[in-house]
Amino acid sequence: MKKDVFAVEIIQDSLLAIGDEMFVALARSSMSPVIYEVLDYACGLTDAKGNLISQGNGVTSFIGMLSPMVQRVIEKFDNGKKLHEGDVIIINDPYVGGGSHLSDVGLVLPIFYNGEIIAYSANKAHWTEVGGMDPGSFTSNSNEIYQEGLQLPGVKLYHQGELNDAVYEIISTNVRLSELSIGDMFAQVAALKTGEKRIAELCQKFGAESVKLSIQKLLDKGEKIVEHELQHLPKGEFYAEDFIEGDPLKGGPYPIKVKVTISDEEFICDFRGSHPAVNVPMNCSQFGLMASVRVMFLALLGDIDVINEGVFKRLTIITDDNSIVSAKRPHPVSMNFEARIGAADLIWKALAPHLPERLSAGHLQSVCTFILTGKNPENDESFLIVEPSVGGWGAANDEDGQSGQYCMGDGETYNLPVEIAETKYGIQIDEYSLNCDGAGAGQFRGGLGVRRVYTVNHNGQKVSVNLGRHQFAPFGLNGGGEGSHNYLIIHKKDGTKIGPVGVLANYELQKGDRIELVTATGGGYGHPHERSTEAIERDLLNEYISVEVAKQQYGYHNA
Amino acid sequence: MKIATDIGGTFTDLVFTDEKGNLHFDKGHTTPGHFEDGILNVLERHVTEDSLIESFIHGSTVIINTLTERKGGVVGLITTKGFRDVIEIARGNRPDLYNFKYKKPEPFVERYLRQEIDERIDFKGNIMKALNTEEVDEIVHKFKELGVEAIAISLIHGYKNPIHEQQLKEAILKIWPEVYITLSSETIKEYREYERTNTTVLNSYVKPIAHAYLKSLKEKLSTIGITDHLKIMQSNGGTTSFDKAMELPINLVESGPVAGMFGAAKLGQLLNESNIIAFDVGGTTAKCSLITDGKVNVTTDYYIERNEKFAGYPIKTPVVDIVEIGNGGGSIARVDQFGSLKVGPDSAGANPGPVAYGLGNTQPTITDANVYLGRLSLENFDNPVSINKVEEALVEAIAKPFHVSAEEAAQGILDIANSNMLNALKLISIRKGYDPEDFTMVAFGGGGPLHAINLAEELGMKKVIIPYGSSVFSALGMMMTEYRQDYIQTSLMGFDHHHLAAIQENIDQVIANAYADAPLSKDHYYFEINYDLRYKGQEHAVKLNASTITLDEEGLLELAEAFHIKHKQEFSFDLPATPIELVNLHLTIYGKDEAVQFKELDFSSIDGSTCVKAQRNLYVKGTGWVEVNVYDQQKLVPGYVITGPAIVENPTSTVVINDKQSIEIDKYGNLIVEMEGK
């Protein structure tokens, strides 16, 4: 065994690199901007039992989806006994392991070495289209899952290396723009095979036993890290309550609550008592919830360099049956990230006062989905813009909040440059600036949101938005003020206006109308009177705050 | 006499040719704060009153240092109304996914130094709203009051039609003639407002410093009679004049490192090796770059300070595509809190340096592992090396916690370091769709030759070349460069016969601009044109090289054909039925100046039979200690084939070859390693 000590290091290093390589491979061969630009996907490896070994992510939440998905597949196929070399399973069921919404389509490939399953490679990617009532399969209008697109319950896309034509045809017939979705599906398969190939190479070089040993040691290490980090977390029970904002025309807001219990051995999040599942698509399933809670858990642990199944061993989630954060079929889940992130944000809110070195005050929280469809005035071609929006993050105990950043559920996500948007879609954007109004006052000031203004230059374009934190602002901390709200206003050419609104579905626009999207500013930290004169004066100089705000909120009178 | 000087962190390297064209090397200490003094010190040893200076090429880290140390000038930014915050919003991404206290890059120009001006140009380049220059007086007044030293102007769609940027510049210079101004349209004509604005701001930021440095260097050089043919190395692998560098100093950001990559490409052309992985290991980092079809790959996808946890700052200027990792000779090995062996990115640097330097460091480094295993000679060091101290460091830091011997610990350090370097090499090759087996490795820098053999073996490569002068190869590469400027213009349109005339019109325009910009007359240059093409609806583009600057129907079809093939290679799929779009035209203009060539060496006075200078114990993984011959590279003659295991040394570099591999010197003084023997 002595000789193996450094081999273990190198195998582990290789296992981590494989997750990354699969991630890059998928981006490289995808045809959809939502994958290769927005990076809305993840690739990873699990061991033979479905324990996560390593994963490459572009957005945060997928970290909690791949291994439960593999575990679901193992369970479904008779503890893996009905899986063969060359099989690939396709699955997007939101209500079982690894589920979020139908748009996120997962693939799982068992990796055999000498006739034995040694690992699984898996990935999950946001498809541009999975069918359903609205183009883009992204709807705030559904009231049950059947409207949201094609459901794939975990079936063999490949059987022993042969493409399953029946499944392939069902998919290509049921989705719009099937070339893109099918292209992405094959890109996902190619990425899985990269993982398979690399694992086989590792086994050949170091022997399957060494690889297995290294995997086990890696998982142990993950667990050890968390045991160690748990010691540094505050102990006890922590509570928070908040709301998931639905579509005000259909109901809501829906109360949610959490009790977080932390001991040296365990981290338990109990969401019982939250609102029952609703008939608007802001629900998430218990597996969607798990994904976001895992993200939150990682954020609490701080900077750890190994993230695998071992890390999550001490994490437990409890919910009621069929609540807004544990919805069951057929409750709609298209905008599931609103409930998912809302629930994770509750943990944030409960713990932030006790863990200031890791957590700031409240942030924009919502993905702030902005959808614009219509025709390009240049060439009359149809376009579909689906864009998340950046906004303000909360202030922390040692710094002002960050301005113009995506919410916690996103990650390595990039905004759409104005010059590209205008060139590609023929639209007109008049302003992309910081929104300083209402930034949470405090010793440290909340981060700034943004204001993005469009002038509609073609009749018949339609806008949809889904903005959380519209009715309830991001929370302040330790005496700091609340931030401001996300909202959209349509300034119509005739002088009237629609809004401010938080949810809008397929609103038809006329040439000359102006769309003003404004995102939230973050919450403040500490009492505003504690803010240094220097910082206040800097803010005045930079026009982050007005003289009036300086006087009224910060008690500054030298201006 | 032709001269190249390259300023590194520790040493300032000098390469020059004598009247016969023979190459000579020297080095002196770098003098931080006043780099020009260090250059003068080493030059004065060789340049006399009688020297006839044909060219002076300079590579410098002044620009990158100014940026990373935040020592630039005060910049005022002017943008289109409604967009002054673009530079602060940036792209909104958070690479450190689970860090909810992530700090995004702070802009190099604070908000109070950002002014907006009423104007608007649309994406087709049409003026939607005329420029209102009445506001200029007030802006200038404010900027002066705020101590602005350099102005950056970046207007929306300025890449498409620079007229407003130019008018604004004129209006400002009228009332403030001495201020430094940079237009976004002068830096790069590519769309994406954040990236272009940031590039423009960073250019403005370094401009006052670059100006002062180059002016001072010019004055100092003139004191030893070097007054003409002054050139400076750019990030794109070519040179430019001092004057031009003062205008666009941001083009020098990777001035030094790219020269070695360019040299590797040149060497490849000489030796008929068109596919090369260039590999450079220094004291703190390892860098690698892929060379295909004999050319370095130039990209505008370049960032400073970017890493897996920080978004960094984009600089959209043409830069040779290099991947760099924090593993070099001085990288420190340690056991982390969870019992894993880590190597780098912390480095012992040049002082105290590795344990072997005897300057007080007790943490083992990659160099120490190489020393302990007999791979590096103790005589390579200026000081007497205490092998006991090296052993003690290895035992305490690594061997004890892992319960292994000192040899195994040292081998472990090398294994981990090689694994890190392998990841970087795979990043530029396998992950981009290239098979390393089709490439030859050219390894240089202080540590490149020492690591290259094992890495090439892992990658299944057939041949490794250790170039003549490998430890000063960056300066050597610089000698061989020529004038080069890149002009990139976003010209979005269908790449089809309907647009043939429009494409040609754009090409002609770019060429006309390039001629207007070039310091000499037309006949001093030659062109190369690249098309950035993509499938309609897709975002990622593929760069394709065309042989002529006129595009006819046939040429268009050939390029389309080539595009499908290259797209499939880079992105693993093609869409033959999908229309192709032109994104950017990329024109490169090269000077026809006579670059220095590699020269055949005179071996006539060398007695090859004395090339074995010693025997040394070498630790071979899996075998243990073996006694091997140590060869003196300076005594090798072509035709003499050495079979491994063996060590070949010269005063500044060492190569260790393994069982069955062979090594032979060629007529240019390069060491050629055949991985499967000869």
UniProtKB/TrEMBL annotation, chain A:
GO terms for molecular function: 5-oxoprolinase (ATP-hydrolyzing) activity. Residues 4-528 form the Hydantoinase B/oxoprolinase domain. GO terms for biological process: glutathione metabolic process. GO terms for cellular component: cytosol. It holds the Pfam family Hydantoinase_B. Coiled coil: none annotated. It comes from the Bacteria. This is 5-oxoprolinase. It comes from Lysinibacillus macroides.
From TrEMBL, chain B:
One of its GO terms (biological process) is glutathione metabolic process. One of its GO terms (cellular component) is cytosol. GO terms for molecular function: 5-oxoprolinase (ATP-hydrolyzing) activity. Transmembrane segments: none annotated. InterPro entries: ACX-like_C, ATPase_NBD, Hydant_A_N, Hydantoinase_A, Oxoprolinase-like. Signal peptide: none annotated. Residues 610-668 form the Acetophenone carboxylase-like C-terminal domain. Residues 196-486 form the Hydantoinase A/oxoprolinase domain. Residues 2-174 form the Hydantoinase/oxoprolinase N-terminal domain. This is 5-oxoprolinase. It comes from Lysinibacillus macroides. The lineage of its organism: Bacteria, Bacillati, Bacillota, Bacilli, Bacillales.
